[in-house]
User: Fold this.
Amino acid sequence: MKYTRIVNMNMMTQDQSIEVLDPKAFRRALGNFATGVTIMTAQNAEGERVGVTANSFNSVSLDPALILWSIDKNSSSFKVFEQATHFSVNVLSGNQIDLSNKFARRSEDKFAGTDFDHGEGQCILLKQCAANFECEKFNIVEGGDHWIIIGRVVRFYDHGRSPLLYHQGAYSSVLPHPSLDRKEIAAGEGDGFPGRLYHNMYYLLTQAVRAYQANYHPKQLASGFRTSEARLLLVLESKTATSKCELQREVAMPVVEIEQATEILAQKGLLFDTGECYELTEQGIEAAQMLYRIAENHQQEIFEKYSTDERELFKSMLKDLIGI
Assistant:
């Protein structure tokens, strides 16, 4: 471990010393602890709004429901957090890297062009996050060169999106650990599929889809898009639907889910309504292409042990079943 030894003659005897850690090495070591990424927001009585990107968020207590985070004492935003009666913890989803970067930089109005609602005590709730917590200011404690702000959670929203992570100075995403990727085969002799049931094509197809999705869905969700949103992006990028009626058939989702997903994607600037159907923006096309790369990489991984001819035959059989 790197450190520097210093002696403060005003506070110590000749035989005493303090070991001071190397700040850079200390920061790198802390970087091994992967954290979620949040944006803390608040508004004071005068209407001044502040928002800062932070990964120091943590839970403190369940009863009462307390959380904490810390802010640099030199931060110009601290004054508003100190004055406000409430603040919000906005846990970012996997596709909100741009928002994280925006609130990490100094700017006159970080909220310009950002979608948000107001909560308790005029706290600011950012949209499309993995989760939001409305907090009443509970206490502020001094902690070295930071202020530790403790909040009592008065309301929260769990949106079920995969969170954005931060590890070793870089953004990351959550995926199941490889050790959890175990195929459980029914007990039996021979090929492990005894009995009449395991010769039933319908059963085999549905089980195959479940097994394929079990490993694919987490990878897709790590992008920050819900399944309905991802499916819409992929279908619209492929241009297989030229009307809203055809779109519903292609995505195979209820109208209400399509309406909710398109509203969210439109708010993010990924698509727009042409009247007849929806069309992707340049940003939406980039998002769809990212999702296709995830899908293609997974497909390559799953079917790697099969020959090209076997894969083509399998796809041909599936297309025949679908009626393509």
Summary: Residues 1-15, 184-190 have pLDDT under 50 and may be disordered. The chain is about 35% helix and 25% strand.
